[in-house]
Amino acid sequence: MSNYVVWSTQVVPHCFVLDELEGVDLDVELRMGRPCANAFPSKAVYTVDPEFPNNIGLADAFYNSNRLALASENLKDFVAAWNPPDVEFLPVTLLNHKSRPAGKYFILHPVNPVDALKPKESGAKWSKENNQRIEKVSKLVLDENKIDRSRLLFKLKYFYKCVLIRRDLAEAITAKGFTGLQWTECAKYRPL
């Protein structure tokens, strides 16, 4: 069993369904795990999907199309107390259906991706446009010898579509009862 799992989300009934991240022009940095805290705008917001007007609750984590690890302030504080290296905490305001602030959230942004994916064993399909990027995998197979044990949250170099979290931190988050999260075993990971 791997020491790492994939940060995943689950739907919490009656909670907001996120729509777009607005006011942020750092798509490449966020996707590829490049540092961007110094350039991150103070007015970044997530809007909610107008097709779900009756969903008005707050969870500790939400699915978002950017595949970012989005966390409530309480969840961010819990993770930050573990002192994760190479993680930026980027503030975002969640807006309700009337475009009013509904909650303070943070993108847990792991920087400096780790070159720990075994491409062949993972069934990696490399991008035809960019030989430094893996488009998809059939599963995640990690070379854990290449992962510094202090890395609690990280992205994989070349395959940027997920955030991995060390199992003991994931279990501690679960034990605290934070909502909107679930963990996916690397061998069972199937990217969207």
Task: Report how far the terminal alpha carbons are from each other.
Answer: 23 Å
- Lateral strand order in the biggest sheet: 2-3-5-6-4
Count up the helices. 3
Biggest sheet: strands, sense, closure?
A: 5 strands, mixed
H/E element order: EEHEEHEEEEEEHE
Number of strands: 11
- Write down the overall geometry: globular
Going by helix content, strand content and strand pairing, the class is: alpha+beta
Counted up, domains total 1
- Helix share of residues? 10-25%
Question: Compute the gyration radius: what is it?
Answer: 16 Å
- Estimate the strand proportion: 25-35%
Structural description of this entry:
With 192 residues, the protein is α+β, with helices and mostly antiparallel strands. Helices cover 12% and strands 28% of the residues. The chain has one domain. The chain has helices spanning 27-32, 73-80, 167-175, and strands at residues 4-9, 18-22, 45-48, 69-72, 87-95, 101-110, 125-126, 134-136, 153-154, 164-166, 181-185. The strands form three sheets. A five-stranded mixed beta sheet has the order 2-3-5-6-4, covered by helices on one side. A four-stranded antiparallel beta sheet has the order 9-10-1-11. A two-stranded antiparallel ribbon has the order 7-8.
